Amino acid sequence: MERIIKLFIVFLVFVSCKKPTEQIVDYSKENFGENFESADIDLSKVFDFEWETLYIFPPLTNPDVITKEIGFGYDGGIVPDDNKLFLFTKKNVIVKKFIYENNGIGIGFSDNNKKVYIIEAVKSKYRIIKLDSDDYWLYRE
């Protein structure tokens, strides 16, 4: 019994550590079919926790820049090279933080014209389009 509980805990940790990009694609496949080509998606419904704003920081972003952008203290380090930082915030608190390596599933945003990409949960409706087996594009609705 104890072994089953330990395995369950390991499973929960593994499942909750999915990269945001994997969560978006998994949600899309579950709701629109394994072989979907395009669909309308609301990112506020994808993640299983409450958030108000998602910030996506590019590689090598300094913590001072992150603090300035989110409007409150950030105590993490520099975003590693070839990685992105996904910060989910709510009421000036970081509720989830993911470091995403730029390999595996790729997701691009059509309206990303700044270094820092900001998505508000109340304005998180996109059209997701499958480009190839592991690449997707999100267009603002």
Quick rundown:
By secondary structure, the protein is α+β, with helices and mostly antiparallel strands. It has helices at residues 2-16, 20-32, 63-70, and strands at 38-42, 53-57, 83-90, 93-101, 106-109, 117-120, 125-132, 135-140.
Task: Note the main sheet.
Answer: 4 strands, mixed
Count of folded domains: 1
Question: In whole angstroms, how far apart are the ends?
Answer: 49 Å
Please state how the strands of the largest beta sheet are arranged side by side.
Answer: 1-7-8-5
Q: What is the average of the pLDDT values?
A: 82
Number of strands: 8
Give an account of the 3D structure.
With 141 residues, the protein is an alpha+beta fold. The strands form two sheets. It has a four-stranded mixed β-sheet with strand order 1-7-8-5, with helices on one face. Strands 4-3-2-6 form a four-stranded antiparallel β-sheet, with no helix packed on it. It has helices at residues 2-16, 20-32, 63-70, and strands at residues 38-42, 53-57, 83-90, 93-101, 106-109, 117-120, 125-132, 135-140.
Looking at this protein, list some descriptive labels.
single chain; 141 residues; alpha+beta; 4-stranded mixed beta sheet; 4-stranded antiparallel beta sheet; 3 helices; 26% helix; globular; disordered N terminus
Task: Please outline the helices and strands.
Elements: H1 2-16, H2 20-32, E1 38-42, E2 53-57, H3 63-70, E3 83-90, E4 93-101, E5 106-109, E6 117-120, E7 125-132, E8 135-140
Parallel strand pairs: 5-8
Antiparallel strand pairs: 1-7, 2-3, 2-6, 3-4, 7-8
